[in-house]
Write a structure and sequence with these properties.
In chain A, a hairpin with a 2-residue loop joins strand 1 and strand 2. In chain A, the strands form two sheets. In chain A, strands 1-2-4-6 form a four-stranded mixed beta sheet, covered by helices on one side. Chain A has 14 helices and six strands. The N and C termini of chain A lie far apart (about 85 Å). The longest helix of chain A is centred in the middle third of the chain and has 40 residues. Chain A is of the alpha/beta class and about 375 residues long. With about 260 residues, chain B is α/β, with parallel strands linked by helices. In chain B, the strands form two sheets. Chain B has a six-stranded mixed beta sheet. In chain B, strand 4 and strand 5 form a beta hairpin. The radius of gyration of chain B is 18 Å and the shape is globular. Classes of the chains: A alpha/beta (about 375), B alpha/beta (about 260). Chains A and B meet through helix 1, helix 2 and helix 3 of A and helix 4 of B.
Chain lengths: ~375, ~260
Amino acid sequence: MFITARRSADQLTLTLTGHWRATESGAIEAELRAIDFSGARQARLAVGASSLDLSGAWLLHDFLERARQAGLEPRFEGETPSALALVERTYSGEIPARVTESEWLDPERAVAGLGRRAVSGWRSFAMGLEFAGRVLVASLRALVSGRRLRPTAIARHVYDTGITAIPIVSLVGFLISVILAYMGAEELGKFGADIFVVDLVTVGVLRELGVLLTAIIVAGRSGSAFAAEIGAMQLNEEVDALHAIGVDPIEALVVPRILALLVVLPLLTIAADIVGLVGGGLLCHALLDMPMLQYVNRVQGAIADTTFWVGLIKAPVFAALIAGAGCACGMRVRGSSRELGRLTTKAVVVAIFSVIVADALFAVLFMKLDL
Amino acid sequence: MAAILEVQGIVTRFGSQVVHDSLDMQVEQGEVFGIIGGSGAGKSVLLRTILGLRRPDAGSVRFLGRNLADLEPGELYRLKASYGVTFQEGALFSALTVQQNVQLPMIEHLELSDRTLDELALLKVRLVGLPLDAGLKYPSQLSGGMIKRAALARALALDPVLLFLDEPTTGLDPISAAAFDELLIYLQRQLKLTVVMITHDLDSIFRTCNRVGVIVDGRMISDTLPGIVHDPHPWIQAYFGGERARARAAGIHGA
């Protein structure tokens, strides 16, 4: 109990009890809400031995406001508690008007929102182009001068994005050939064309799936890492520090990452290709009782000279897209940890999406080139 | 006066490096206790130990007579409602507005209606002297001085009896720092707070502190402000004997 109310005729006597502490404010609030002013014309308050902290004092202040609105003029027996005086002093001056407008139902707002989205979409596209241009210039400058190339940074990123990714990429390469071989053995077996399982696996892995799935894995691993690393540096003002020292952050942070990934992704693709082909051989042996030698011969028959290169040539393009998306999103982090999370997510989504779009364009291009 | 916070025989080691070697400290109810010490003397580590963020290698921390190490998790949780902390860089949650930052401890510890939450948070925002619209801003939109004030508002959210401040005026210009000191004195008197403050700011020490504890050689030498100035320890002499400090000290002796 924090307050007791006694009524005699039209007089309401309120006695505070206990310690009105912030930690009890839920209970105090409930008790105060239960007090009914109806019929009362005068109110007296006795503070007695109870004490108020600031939250308690605000609850009392709010209660007294309610009493005043009900037409009462509450009077204290003895002194006004000092905490209450502090609340009233803090509140002296205007009370802010609450802004509550419904954002959704206003047509003007909706149109304005649409326009704002269009403009911000265009701006972000323009920013992407600008970023790509600046990266290109910085990369060319780095390639010309060894001092700007930062081989140590590149080596670290090659290790982080490449060497440590070999196990997962190899495993995925193997699993792709498992999927293709099982699917092929099932479907092609119906036509008695079992032997074409080899074609399916080799062409599938080398041309498309090896590089595509490697790129998707690297986008998830390294695209996000790039965005998070650079974003955290932005939040920490480390990027500003680089600017201030006279180091171009694009040159120091972005170019080494992009160059490293340009080196790494083709190599990882080759690893996935090798494991995929070996896995295909093992599966053909297991599923179709095909001798390994026959598999090797068939592989040589199935692939054209260009098959391997058609797959591999996509890797650097994907690498540039992944690293570019990761770094660009990281550089755009401003202000809050939520931004960091949002842009890291965005980096991965943009990277994977643009890799798939690029792959589709490559498919059309190679078709036209008759490769 | 009763000791609100008692630290006894704290030992802190990082590998072979001993930071605190049996450090004792006592803070009385209602005083402003300043902690000073050289960089790396272990001021922030001491604060983290007192807050229970770091387990000491030996020694005990007693808060309101109770040993932190003996408390059940539930009791510790309730205890956390009775002190407030501001960190060096403010440590405001960057994804929340100032008002939401202030409300966070309230939502965690109290059961209040939304309106009361809003009003109480605004009261705290006004109390620390921030303009009204600051409540709706994000920490990245605030100046350094406003961040310190917003952090103070969050520390005061649950009306603590004890307030820990880690370098509250560092990085502020002298005018803002002085204003912060005045605010602190005002709040300390009005809310009958006990304040433990880590600081390097000589002006701030002479203006606000009743007693000062100096961490030297892994121990704490504490005394009243006029007393500590005359302590024979060479580091303390160097600290208070500097040109800037002498000018200040002359001020308090004259008064």
